[in-house]
User: What shape does this take?
Amino acid sequence: MRSLICFELKKIITRKSTWVSAVALYALLCVLMAANILQAVAYDNETGQRYSGLTAINYEKSIVKPHAGLLTPQLISEEITGYQQEAFATVSPQEVVDLSSAAAYDLMEELLPAAECARLQSPYYGYLLSPWAQNGSGAFQTAARMQLDGTDPSTFYEALQAKTLRQLDAGLDPSSAAPLTNAEYDFWKQKVEALPTPFEYGYAGGWQDLLNCLSFLVFGMLAICIGLTPVFCGEYAARTDAVLLATRYGRTRLIAAKVAASLLFATAYYLLYAATIAGIILACYGTDGAHLPIQVLVSTSPYNITVSQAVWLGMGVSYVMTLGFTGLTLLLSSRLRSQVAVFAIDACLLLITGFVGTSAKGLLLKLFSLFPINGLSVGVLAKNFLSYSAGPLVLEPATAIALTWFVAAAASIAAAALIFRRHQVA
Amino acid sequence: MELTLDRLSKQFGEKIAVDRVSATLTPGVYGLLGANGAGKTTLMRMLCDVLRPTSGQIALNGRSVRALGAEYRSHLGYLPQDFGYYPEFTALDFMGYMAALKGIPASVSRRRSLELLDAVGLRDMAKRRIKTFSGGMKQRLGIAQAMLNQPGILVLDEPTAGLDPKERVRFRNLIASFAQDKIVVLSTHIVSDVESIADEVIVMRAGSFIMRGHPETIVSALEGKVWECVADAREAAALESRFIVANAHYTPDGRNALRVIADRCPTPSATPLRPTLEDVYLHVFRDEL
Assistant: This one.
């Protein structure tokens, strides 16, 4: 059996279409990853200097790290009060509250010394003030409004939960993108209310970028599909099916070897792709902040996981998707004679679903969210209240996606094996 | 070993490719003859369990091959017509792959592969990629893989296609040495190959067996019906329009010497010739020529 698997692997790997697409799509990934790092940008609000690439990454780290630590209500209260004292030492909050964001920042730069202004524009304060931010208002106006309203800044977690639940409530509106059932609403509400506090704040740029780049794995899946397209239909096209099926193990071990070799190839290429993405990003951004809660990146996330767990969850889901597409490709390959047709269907499912998915609503949105480009987005994995339910059973997207593609992989592989086993050479 | 074909039929839509064929094959070499579309390849595919009959069954020693499944296929060696290869595999890779599929232990596989590659004259090419092989070399590799598992039933569809005369002789000798106590079924368009290898010739037309027997017996049916006629050009044309002309050549004095198949003496000067299997073939398929 081992030798059969090796021969099947050799068939897959030595096929020109396989290695050309595998090399080309790997090169594309390297270019994308390089661009991702080189295009990282940061502005030093004190000097007005613009940083890019690794310098920008290091600058971002340097401005977040001093604030790292547990965000207790007392600390938050002190920080916001301190912010308000500094920000409104020379200007009344009344004058700021109704300004546009741009006008508020212009005013802040005009009134405050550069160093102080830069410090107050740190993303840290933006984060602390985010539960009270309204209609996209910035930290400056939010702090002004809080001071005018007499809002207690120590109620950060209560305010954040209220904000999150307001977003959840919006899902009850039948005209929302993905209206929630009562069971789904209760499911999410319980999750939101069960979130542990206080959060720990800190720098998690590497994990954030990794989450944002998970969709790049789609190119790896595409290369895998190209490589596996001829596994069965290549035998029909080359007319080797007759000689294979007439052998003792042509209808049994051969099929198992083909499936095993396909899964090995898919796994190896997936690992290479995933390791490249993770390796480049974590090497450049660092692994800092792996233990921080996902709410550091997405404050209204209903999930009780760390940023690194979110990344590994995404990686796990994408691996199951890869297996699903492996199974699907094998099924199509066993059924269709044309390799082009197999690849065209794969490419549509991988890419077109991503293009149309974002504009879909309701069931279509849920359907397209099961496919890689949408399913691997931060929104679906860690932010949106998108769920899949059947009666009282409610599944969050990661579980639903993994389950769907696992079942798809198992069913497709079983069907492909049956079709090839029953194949008639006519 | 006994292979029984019981009213075996295969129909593709309206077209009947094999029509209620029955036969009992015991060890020996069977040569299948027939024009294109006669049903030879379809019959061979059914024999090799890669094509399911529409009706009827094939049994090995009284047991249905469908029920036997892998056990039946373990007795099989098959060279399909025009089958493909894996261009990036070496000849030895391909033999190793086929050996694994046939359940030959790894310890035996390499030795037997090299022996067979030697037998078909490819020993020196064992480590060369198949994509560098000529058509004849690929055909010889196909013959070698078919014999890897020392099959009790060897089915060869057009095994001599693409082989030069020397290779055909080598192939005939290989089959002769291999065939003892085995059932070998082969089809070929090269009638002389069948004549020299086959113990029994089966002639197929429109999906049915229309003639079966030892080559000499079959040939003897045409005894007294093959003639040599020497004629000028005008007479030759007249003969060609009336009779089957198996061969024609010029005599040293510039006249036409025709090999004519006719039930009665076609010309007063015609001399009788000893019939061959090719004459039988042309006689049987005269309407399709």
Observations:
- Chain B touches chain A at residues 12, 45, 48-52, 69-70, 73-74, 76, 78-80, 82-86, 88-89, 93, 96-98, 100-103, 106, 142, 145, 149 (CB under 8 Å).
- The two ends of chain B are 38 Å apart (CA to CA).
- Chain B has a mean pLDDT of 87.
- The longest strand of chain B covers residues 15-25.
